[in-house]
Amino acid sequence: MGDIGVPATIKAFEERLLEVSESLPKRLRQCADYVAANKDRIAVSTVAEMAEGAGVQPSAFMRFCQILGFSGFSEMQRLFRDSYVGGWPDYSTRLDHLREKAEGSPSALLAEFVEAGRTSLENLLKTIEPHTLEQAVKILAKAQMIHIIGMRRSFPVASYMAYAFEKMNVPAMLHSAVGRLENRNAVRDGDALLAITFSPYTADTIDMVEAVSAHGLQVVAITDTIVSPLRKFPATILSVSEVDFGAFRSLSATLCLAITLAVAVGTERPEK
Fold first, then answer.
1. Which three-class secondary structure state does DSSP give residue 175?
2. Would you call 90 exposed, middle or buried from its count of C-beta atoms within 10 A (0-12, 13-18, 19+)?
3. pLDDT of 193-243, one tens digit each?
4. Residue 2 lies in a domain
5. Alpha helices per DSSP H over 73-216
6. What gap in Å lies between CA 156 and CA 40, rounded to an integer?
7. Are residues 78 and 171 in the same domain?
8. Residue 30 has what DSSP assignment?
9. Per its UniProt entry, which superkingdom is the organism in (predicted)?
10. What are 190-203's pLDDT values in tens digits?
């Protein structure tokens, strides 16, 4: 087919897929059909998993990637990972952008963040699957102790959850790493972990999820994109997508989910 160039965007990828799919032989057409229906799996799957889903050998799937213009599956996967996890500018850059657009008056900021919050709350109903939410509540309600971890931007959510559970007499422990003190030895059989992290993901949170999962304890995770590293663990995932304004992200939807979880768990637990 010659050098057709590497698709640089998801849109270009979709156009290339549409362009070549009709002329593909049966096995490669299976790859095209599977990818078209499961683009959300590309960023988090191995080539073997994608090939199995398409019902072909990994070598056939690699050939399919090359026909689309990629050197192999890794390059195609990188396109999807980069599209979901973009870099966030530092705070000085974000403020400069707002100043350049003359959008920094208090009233204007309030209106914009209210709109971003409203949209985030509406999206929450689309990203949270009812049965997954129910499963998360059951896991936390049955736990002897709920361990909570969330750093940086996630810390307000984690600390609120600890506060809410305390008020409802639900045994909970906040892992904050204050003073670099770790409390992982406090985790016991029958406990559960509630982990909260968003891009850019916090290593301490991921490490604790890995450690707890290795011991067979159940994990409930609140996170964002499909390439969140928490998705590689056997956790019950609750997805939240916060709409940003000027590259500033609020916690409107996340805190709404947090209070929902807290009240649902408090209601589910038997009275003592």
1. strand
2. exposed
3. 999 998 777 888 888 898 888 888 999 999 886 667 788 888 999 988 887
4. no
5. 73-84, 91-100, 106-127, 130-142, 155-167, 203-214
6. 29
7. no
8. H
9. Bacteria
10. 899 999 998 777 88
